[in-house]
């Protein structure tokens, strides 16, 4: 068994892979592959409807929010958000907690004035800035709830009355959230919801249609809402596999249940990082992520050797992002505690053999 700690596209449950494979050959006894059915067919309309209703149920999405399945990844949202929301000459506020957050701000600069309310760039994003002010005349405030590369996570929405937008690409569905606190939530599916190719957007309806800008149809949230995420051909297979994964999550007891598992998984690994004399965490303890756990060695010369051992033990994808180095264990929903234990065992084995 391979233990997939990859940061994204990520591990999904084995049973999801099996059902997804079956549907490639014969989707719902139609005698057709899911890859060849019409996106306008009754069968696929049911898939979209069920995917939306699972998102609404699992995340407790209020009625006055739309749920969209779009393409272009989270990166397209970086541009779509200001394009839809910022009036000419308008201003938005961004919190800079990493590469994704700063890319989001960079795109927004094409559409208006961008205030960076705080940044931890000077420490290579090892912590989340606190105690910053969000200007009240900003059209919206944007932040990234989980910093996939640096292993930091923001669990509490920063206090503000300014409409708040959050990139939850790498922690969506991993913990309970109050959707009503946010005005727009987006997430590329491939970190914790499904395969690459679909992006989830949850948007409060009355946030839209106020910028006075002319927006190309394909980038206009209101057009996608009107068309029920079918303005153009949607990513049929990615939505289907996401639905299977959401069904799996619901059967497991939903977000409350998975959050408890995620807490235990993260604690188990952080405990070993703290205990083991060869390893140390890179993120500030109070900001540590439950989804992406970053750590390095006191003696970097040994890192290659640990990667070799990890490979022998079928631990996949633990090499850290090049901008942080060391290791990163992404421990998304579908990764079981067995895999965490396998990594912990390898870390102990390494320590024993180097004493
Ligand atoms: C991976 C990631 C992105 C980029 O997602 P794409 O779907 O590849 O555009 C954006 N934000 C966060 C937090 C991510 O982890």
TrEMBL record:
<dbReference type="InterPro" id="IPR015424">
    <property type="entry name" value="PyrdxlP-dep_Trfase"/>
</dbReference>
<feature type="binding site">
    <location>
        <begin position="74"/>
        <end position="75"/>
    </location>
    <ligand>
        <name>pyridoxal 5'-phosphate</name>
    </ligand>
</feature>
<comment type="subunit">
    <text>Homodimer.</text>
</comment>
<keyword id="KW-0032">Aminotransferase</keyword>
<keyword id="KW-0808">Transferase</keyword>
<feature type="binding site">
    <location>
        <position position="40"/>
    </location>
    <ligand>
        <name>L-glutamate</name>
    </ligand>
</feature>
<dbReference type="InterPro" id="IPR015421">
    <property type="entry name" value="PyrdxlP-dep_Trfase_major"/>
</dbReference>
<dbReference type="InterPro" id="IPR020578">
    <property type="entry name" value="Aminotrans_V_PyrdxlP_BS"/>
</dbReference>
<dbReference type="GO" id="GO:0004648">
    <property type="term" value="F:O-phospho-L-serine:2-oxoglutarate aminotransferase activity"/>
</dbReference>
<keyword id="KW-0718">Serine biosynthesis</keyword>
<keyword id="KW-0663">Pyridoxal phosphate</keyword>
<comment type="pathway">
    <text>Amino-acid biosynthesis; L-serine biosynthesis; L-serine from 3-phospho-D-glycerate: step 2/3.</text>
</comment>
<dbReference type="InterPro" id="IPR022278">
    <property type="entry name" value="Pser_aminoTfrase"/>
</dbReference>
<feature type="domain" description="Aminotransferase class V">
    <location>
        <begin position="4"/>
        <end position="334"/>
    </location>
</feature>
<feature type="binding site">
    <location>
        <position position="148"/>
    </location>
    <ligand>
        <name>pyridoxal 5'-phosphate</name>
    </ligand>
</feature>
<dbReference type="InterPro" id="IPR000192">
    <property type="entry name" value="Aminotrans_V_dom"/>
</dbReference>
<keyword id="KW-0028">Amino-acid biosynthesis</keyword>
<comment type="function">
    <text>Catalyzes the reversible conversion of 3-phosphohydroxypyruvate to phosphoserine and of 3-hydroxy-2-oxo-4-phosphonooxybutanoate to phosphohydroxythreonine.</text>
</comment>
<feature type="binding site">
    <location>
        <position position="190"/>
    </location>
    <ligand>
        <name>pyridoxal 5'-phosphate</name>
    </ligand>
</feature>
<feature type="binding site">
    <location>
        <begin position="232"/>
        <end position="233"/>
    </location>
    <ligand>
        <name>pyridoxal 5'-phosphate</name>
    </ligand>
</feature>
<feature type="modified residue" description="N6-(pyridoxal phosphate)lysine">
    <location>
        <position position="191"/>
    </location>
</feature>
<keyword id="KW-0963">Cytoplasm</keyword>
<comment type="pathway">
    <text>Cofactor biosynthesis; pyridoxine 5'-phosphate biosynthesis; pyridoxine 5'-phosphate from D-erythrose 4-phosphate: step 3/5.</text>
</comment>
<protein>
    <recommendedName>
        <fullName>Phosphoserine aminotransferase</fullName>
        <ecNumber>2.6.1.52</ecNumber>
    </recommendedName>
</protein>
<dbReference type="InterPro" id="IPR015422">
    <property type="entry name" value="PyrdxlP-dep_Trfase_small"/>
</dbReference>
<dbReference type="Pfam" id="PF00266">
    <property type="entry name" value="Aminotran_5"/>
</dbReference>
<keyword id="KW-0664">Pyridoxine biosynthesis</keyword>
<feature type="binding site">
    <location>
        <position position="100"/>
    </location>
    <ligand>
        <name>pyridoxal 5'-phosphate</name>
    </ligand>
</feature>
<feature type="binding site">
    <location>
        <position position="167"/>
    </location>
    <ligand>
        <name>pyridoxal 5'-phosphate</name>
    </ligand>
</feature>
<comment type="similarity">
    <text>Belongs to the class-V pyridoxal-phosphate-dependent aminotransferase family. SerC subfamily.</text>
</comment>
